[in-house]
Specification:
single chain; mainly alpha
């Protein structure tokens, strides 16, 4: 007998609790991004400080790229470790622990003064930030029914999309008012500290904590009937069904490609706008927020759309978005829209719209579909963890490509990456269709 309590038939009390839980997860993960977006936004000012101290401009850019690359490696390691730990210890507890660590390393970065110190603090921050998302996925798997995963994770994803955009606008205001990069870092740590206190007092692991029934997992989860069990299981029993699935590996490959594309825009857009288009630091921070903002709109639209399309719908949305982004990136490389300052910024916004919705599925709704209650955090951790192979390439490698070929050359490379990722999406869509047809 099913014990599922869908969002549209749940008791009024459970609906209220679900809304509160969603708001807490969104506000908390938004706070995470205040302590993540501060580095790319402040990168021009940090570069200037390093140059003033005797470092060449190119060395400073490579140094910042190294922080991004090593930070991505730490983030990936944290995802692999954090997924299994979160399935055992609980999502809410891990979500809060990541906040505490990120606050501490952000403050440490603000009081540092050299590339080695910046690197240590930046890498430590990214490791602690890796705990946030797996905590979110675990909590969602306990609170919401599977036929609402796309919509729920769409809203949760706004926390790192609109949250990223809001944090950049917040930092723009601070910069416009004369605050240096260290002041910006301390202010963002304060925002995350406020979100930590809010979640500490009100976030709960499961509706069972309030005497309500937990929903059933997705019927296509890779664990079968065991996917309905939230109790801790041996790690090998969690990993075996995931690693034996070809669909799961296609999703991991998609995650690598889409993360390389997304992280490149997240990390380097302010410098692209300043160096290639002559924007001020504040204007570069402003326009860089367009990528996550329009990506957020995409996430909401495709989340609801994929739920409506049913089984296999998410694979189709991923395929269409990635292939269209490949064309848009080629236009950006060819400077088709460079007649005005608005044109390139608008093209960046379009690319965000095409890429971020599909990206949001992978370690969100798709991980929940695959993992059920038993392995949702582990699935999210692996999918998100392997993706940071792409994130590492978005740092040092993309910095070297931009130095050697200019931004147009870098965008041409990204167009090729998007096309190759699209070919994987074709196979994922085809195999998903065959599985659904059985």
């Amino acid at each position: 007998m099913s014990t599922e309590a869908p969002l549209d038939t749940a008791s009024p009390r459970l609906k209220r609790k679900q809304m509160v839980t969603l708001a807490l997860l969104m506000s908390g993960y938004t706070g995470y991004y205040f302590c993540r977006s501060n580095l790319p936004v402040c990168a021009p000012m940090i570069r200037e400080e390093l140059v003033a101290g005797g470092t060449t401009a190119e060395q400073a850019v490579v140094g910042l790229g190294t922080i991004i690359t090593l930070g991505a490696l730490a983030y990936a390691v944290g995802k692999f470790l954090g997924g299994g730990i979160t399935d055992r210890l609980g999502g809410a507890r891990i979500f809060l622990a990541g906040m505490v660590g990120s606050i501490a390393f952000t403050v440490l970065f603000a009081f540092s003064g050299s590339l080695p110190a910046f690197t240590a603090a930046g890498v430590g921050n990214r490791f602690m930030q890796s705990l946030g998302w797996v905590g979110v996925v675990r909590v969602v798997s306990r609170w919401y029914p599977h036929h609402r995963f796309g919509a729920v994770m769409g809203f949760v994803s706004l926390s790192y999309l609109f949250g990223d955009a809001i944090s950049r606008q917040f930092m723009k205001v601070l910069i416009d008012n004369g605050l240096g990069w260290r002041g910006v870092f301390l202010a963002t740590a304060g925002v995350l500290a406020a979100m930590f206190l809010l979640n500490l007092f009100f976030l709960r692991e499961s509706p069972a904590d309030f005497g309500e029934v937990e929903p059933e997992p997705h019927p296509d989860n890779l664990f079968g009937a065991a996917g309905a069990e939230a109790a801790p299981a041996p790690l090998r029993d969690v990993l075996r069904p995931l690693l034996r699935s070809s669909l799961f590996w296609y999703v991991c490959l998609l995650s690598i490609g889409l993360t390389l594309l997304r992280e490149t825009f997240q990390n380097w857009t302010p410098l692209y706008f300043k160096d290639d288009l002559g924007f001020t630091d504040a204007d570069a921070a402003d326009k860089s927020s367009w990528f996550p903002f329009f990506g957020g709109i995409s996430v909401l639209l495709v989340g609801f759309l994929s739920d409506k399309l049913g089984r296999g719908g998410r694979a189709l949305v991923i395929l269409v978005g990635v292939m269209a982004a490949s064309v848009a990136l080629l236009f950006l490389a060819m400077k088709v829209t460079h007649g005005t300052a608005f044109g390139p910024a608008a093209m960046v916004a379009l690319i965000g719209f095409l890429l971020v919705g599909p990206y949001s599925f992978l370690a969100g709704a798709v991980a929940l579909d695959f993992g059920g209650k038993r392995g949702s955090a582990a699935a999210a951790g692996i999918i998100d963890g392997v993706s940071y192979i792409g994130a590492m390439a978005s740092g040092l490698i993309m910095a070297q490509i931009a130095n050697a070929l200019g931004w147009s050359g870098a965008f041409a490379v990204l167009s090729a990456v998007a096309f190759a990722t699209g070919l994987v999406a074709v196979r994922f869509y085809w195999d998903q269709r065959k599985r659904v047809a059985r």
